[in-house]
Amino acid sequence: MSIVEKFVTMDYGPAPEDPREALTWLDHHHRRFSHFINGAWHPPVENKFFDTTDPSTTEKLADIAQGSARDIDAAVKSAGAALPAWQSLTPHARARYLYALARQIQKHSRRLAVLETLDNGKPIRESRDIDIPLVARHFYHHAGWAQLLAQEFPGHEACGVVGQIIPWNFPLLMLAWKIAPALATGNTVVLKPAEFTPLTALAFAEICQEIDLPPGVVNIVTGDGSTGEALVAHPDVDKIAFTGSTEVGRAIRKATASSHKKLSLELGGKSPFIIFEDADLDSAVEGLVDGIWFNQGQVCCAGSRLLMQESIAEPLIAKICARMNTLRVGPPLDKSIDIGAIIARVQLDRIQRLVDQGVAEGATCWQANHPMPSRGLYFPPTLLSNVHPTSIVAQQEIFGPVLAAMTFRTPSEAVELANNTAYGLAACVWSESINVSLHIASQIKAGVVWVNCTNLFDASCGFGGYRESGYGREGGREGLLEYLEPTWFKQAPQLHPRPLAIDQPPQQIPESSADSAANPPIDRTVKLFIAGKQARPDSGYSTPVRAADGRLLGEAPLGNRKDIRNAVEAARKATAWPKSTAHTRAQVLYYLAENLSQRREEIAQRLSDVVGKQQAEAEVSLSIERIFTYAAWADKYEGAIHNPPFRNVTLAMQEPIGTIGILCPQEAPLLGFISTVMPALAVGNTTVAIPSEIYPLVTGDLYSLFETSDLPAGAVNIVTGRPAELLKTLAEHDDLDALWCFADFATCSTAKALSIGNLKQVFTNEGRSIDWFNPAPSSDRFFLQHATQIKNIWVPYGE
Ligand code: NAI
Q1: pLDDT, mean over the chain
Q2: How confident is the model at residue 517, as a pLDDT?
Q3: What pLDDT shows up at residue 657?
Q4: What sign has the CA pseudo-torsion 232, 237, 239, 243?
Q5: Ligand 1: which of 122, 170, 245, 379 to mutate, most ligand atoms within 8 Å of CB?
Q6: How many CB atoms lie within 10 A of CB 388?
Q7: Residue 165 and residue 265: Cα distance in Å, rounded?
Q8: Which of 72, 463, 493, 581 lies 20 to 30 Å from 224, alpha-carbon distance?
Q9: Does residue 219 sit in helix, strand or coil?
């Protein structure tokens, strides 16, 4: 037999990793773990424990403490007590602690990798070469951010005590993604690992002890969903960071709605893996192996929907099947295993159930003829072809090694299919044409797009979703902002509560002033502004608008649900605005300011009836200035280029969120409208705005400005009426991408609670009083941040 023949026919020998050191570590802890609170081990108050097991054998590894609300309370108290001292450290001192954590993780890297594989079932090749090195990289990178914090984020402060809840698919990596930025920015932490995989978090707790991290800065409380719920509900937690299922993300959003807790959610995905006919097919197939069979497909950004150009579907499927035949499924501690065990029986059953449903709906199922291990929880790599785009396996996250394949003909059809999901976490585009790839990347609604590569991650590049995949980013500068608040915003006083007049009786008007003959005749009746046109309200009703002294100033239309729906539809269709260049947007805004300046006196005079002469003049002058500010930003609020330690560049693009509904502030009818709608417009969003209830007649002045300033129809829509009723329709509208609400605390809570359906992003003033007349220097950036989301496009270079 020739050497070549031998090479081709040779089988793999066993290459087992030695688990002894990890097992000795478990024995050293008597295979029983308590909570890590205030720098020490504390048994659970209720003395309850649960098993953690090795999914590759289903054997028990250790007893784990089940956290109760009282354990959470002790941990939150400890984090709160540690906060002042941790925050008073110099950035350099915090940087040294983060650096020490990175060093210590590297020193224990092999034991951590083995522990991870034991507890999770992932191949040691992955935990050793991907997970743990990325964990160390994350702490190194954030040690750097801790050092630079004051100079890079002036005027910002930490959120405070942060509650973090992580899943089981990348246990230590998710811990690092959460803890490193939180500590670097001066927060203290209570983290709850997933119930299936607590061991590496507990090993990390020990590392915190080894480097003498001040007690209470990191607390780890183990337990199931109820422990997570207690953490979310705790009143002294200032921020929740969650990674896991969309369903639980929604529950957390609801549970935090009536609090000031800041929230970031990294949820599920159904990411498209798009292969064009000009792609290097062999590379694409290798990419696919990493895209869907990495970590048994239990990856939130797994490329689980294969979209193939029709012309190459047949040869591509043949190549995929051939490659699947060479994947090795087996004990994850074997170094030459590609596919390890599924985390738990419940997940295994779920995968099987979904595959069965897919087949029942018409998909063809193909599985390689692998020898499967006789014990443990395994699922073979699976290809479902002929999948219909509406099939359950094309829509639901399977979270297993299952690929659903579909075809497309044209690039625009590929984009349509790619975006045909409620999720928006990641996407892969394979084409040898850089023009095609970037053109497609720009149209896909996802937080990460990998061009001719897949599943690359780095601490310098933000990761996170669009749409129902959540919001907020982990990694990079944008990831740090999730753990910081501008000081001016955090410390602003609460607005005096002013409930929105949903059923308030009409104001009592003094006889002497109302409708008296001395008053000028009333002829001022404004309309709604929808799709660039003045529109009568569907209800056919108007409501009187009164001056401060009770005089009748005019009539404002009473918009209803239908008007809001029409306005959202118009905003959605107004694609000319998001597609226009930043330069064009800047020009339109400058023109708007110019037109406002031309008409400043008449507008100020009308406004003065409600807010007084002084405020009216200030509102008009400052509105002109504010429009200039956002016109200036329109072509300057740009992204960044990252240089992760691979042969690629990552383009961090600032993209508009889409269509934003805005409840404008009550207290400054013109300036409040301009200060909130302009930042959204400047970066290419379209809007539906509800103007101030105290002077909805401002709508007339605004639309006459918009009509004469070359603003494309539908970019701004204005609906007047009862704000509480309109806000509810906006919040519940499933085609709206974000809701902004500037009102009292109760109204902001309502906005958050009502908008959980499609998980739209919510930005509120938290019921705080924002000084629209004297904004903090960083406030325009703050608004622009909320008006955009970052898409990271990874572009490789080299042969
Ligand atoms: P899960 O979302 O229930 O669990 C994630 C974490 O949240 C765990 O630490 C869990 O204890 C905690 N948790 C559960 N209920 C909670 C609650 N009400 N309040 C606060 N914390 C709570 O995910 P699960 O059940 O482990 O997996 C179910 C499905 O979720 C998977 O099949 C997959 O589709 C998806 N998933 C997505 C992940 C992602 O990274 N996007 C990660 C894990 C699961």
Answers
A1: 95
A2: 52
A3: 98
A4: negative
A5: 245
A6: 15
A7: 10
A8: 463
A9: strand
CB 687 within 8 A of CB 680: yes
- What residue has token string 């008296």? 516
Task: Tell me if 175 sits within 8 A of 191, measured CB to CB.
Answer: yes
Contact 633, 697 (CB under 8 A): no
pLDDT tens column, 746-794? 999 999 999 999 999 999 999 999 999 999 988 999 999 999 999 999 9
Task: Name the catalytic one among 116, 266, 468, 693.
Answer: 266
pLDDT at 367 over 90: yes
C-alpha 525 – ligand 1 centre gap (Å) = 53
The runs of H, that is alpha helices, within 293-421 are 313-326, 345-360, 392-395, 411-418
- Taking residue 129's Cβ as centre, other Cβ atoms within 10 Å add up to 13
Q: How far is Cα 615 from Cα 35, in angstroms, rounded to an integer?
A: 57
Query: Where is 430: in which H helix or E strand?
Result: strand 426-430
Mean pLDDT of all residues in 461-480? 96
Can you read off the two tokens belonging to residue 690? 């509800």
Q: Which residues contact 370 (CB under 8 A, 6 or more apart)?
A: 327, 328, 329, 380, 381
What is the reported pLDDT for 710? 93
Measure the CA–CA gap between 378 and 619, rounded to whole angstroms.
66
244: Cβ–Cβ under 8 A, 6 or more apart, which residues?
165, 166, 167, 194, 267
Distance CA 380, CA 479 (A): 36
DSSP 681-725: HHTT-EEEEE--TT-TTHHHHHHHHHHTTTPPTTSEEE--S-HHH
Q: What is the CA radius of gyration of the chain?
A: 28
Q: Taking the alpha carbons of 683, 684, 685, 690 in that order, is the dihedral positive or negative?
A: positive
Angle of helix 69-88 relative to helix 225-233, nearest 10 degrees?
A: 50
pLDDT tens-place string over residues 5-60:
888 788 888 899 999 999 999 999 999 999 999 999 999 999 999 999 999 999 99
Ligand 1 first shell, C-beta below 6 A: 165-169, 192, 194-195, 224-225, 228-229, 232, 243-245, 248, 251-252, 267-268, 300, 347, 350, 397, 399
Residue 156's φ and ψ, nearest 5 degrees, are -115, 155
Ligand 1 atom nearest residue 269's Cα: 41
Kindly state the helix (H) or strand (E) to which residue 473 belongs, with its residue range.
none
Give every CB contact of residue 410 below 8 A, 6+ residues apart in sequence: none
Query: Which burial class, exposed, middle or buried, applies to 641 when counting CB atoms under 10 A from its CB (0-12, 13-18, 19+)?
Result: exposed
For 99, list phi and psi in degrees, rounded to 5: -65, -40
